[in-house]
Write a structure and sequence with these properties.
Helix 2 runs antiparallel to helix 3. With 374 residues, the chain is mostly helical. The strands form 4 sheets. It has a 3-stranded antiparallel β-sheet with strand order 6-5-7. A 3-stranded antiparallel β-sheet has the order 9-8-10. Helix content is 60%, strand content 12%. The longest helix is centred in the N-terminal third of the chain and has 31 residues.
Amino acid sequence: MHLHCEQCHNVCLVPVLSAGTRADCPRCGHTLITKRKNASERVLAFALSAMVFLGLSLPFNFLTFRASGQHHSIDLPSGLGVLVSQDYLSLAIITGVATLLLPGIVLTCFVIMSWHYIANTRPRYLVKVSKTIDLLLPWSMAEIFLVGTLVSLIKITELADVSVGLSFYAFIGFTVFTTLSVYYYDQNTYKNWLYSKRQRSFHPISRNSANKSIQRTWALLMTAIILYVPANVLPIMHTELMGGDSPNTIIGGVITLWEQGSYPVASIIFVASVVVPVVKIGILLWLNYSVHLSLNINTQKRMAYYRFTEAIGRWSMIDVFVVAILVALIQMGSTMSIYPGPAALAFCAVVFVTMIAAMTFDSRLIWHKWKGLS
């Protein structure tokens, strides 16, 4: 069968694969298709299991915080409600959508796609289901929220006692089975099966489309650079302790954690919140500059860097989720409370804008001198 590589637009002749093998594009190295044993059955089983654990993670206690003779417990819905009550509706929406709603929709689509694949039926709406998975999967961040929760627990264990509830363990199960579902879901396998009796459209590169890709990427990167300033200068959260207010910036929080001896947590937050955004913006600036001038240099290296930016960008959301968890959990009046700062939304915007910039950037331009196209 003939497959189009989505990253370099090369047409490849791929033989029938056996279980445990995959086909890579000989031009850019992008994985065209992966064949795993009983993959569809596993996607169906893991997705259904993840949905069950998602349901179990909602009604029970998630975390409990105890300090100075007081305690505060939250489940996931009430935690989002605390963010709303603190006039941070936008942060509540972002957290709820990215960690609960979108993963739930993606899992539902996994179940539908794998069920029809096993039954070998192709209703017309499966095309929309496939596109929904492609659109929403990058924004599904349950595993990042779990890491953010673990970082939060380490940060606050020095302040007070924290215990986990049943919903916390259920959320771990939800995250694990969601990750397994994503691992076994090979989008190209489903697309080739889905379009086997239909004409699958591929949009060629034109001068106009190349110009639009480059201009949009420039605009998004400039926006990200502008937003990165308030994200690091303004406080990302405020800690109120015994009536005193202590604002914390991202860098300030990293320094405080390092001075307290929490070296692993400080390193994680520094890498995710400082290094990753800067590196991603820098790489995308270089890539867009190279295709803008139609430079024919280090083609394979540029592709490797592009894939790197796609893989790491979303993990910068760890710090945003840490803030959301701490604000939802630590609310004890003037004794001890944490409130989100303006940098939380600014930093969240940086992450989203850079993710969109990576999606807008057309990696096929690395392989084509677009100025010569008609």
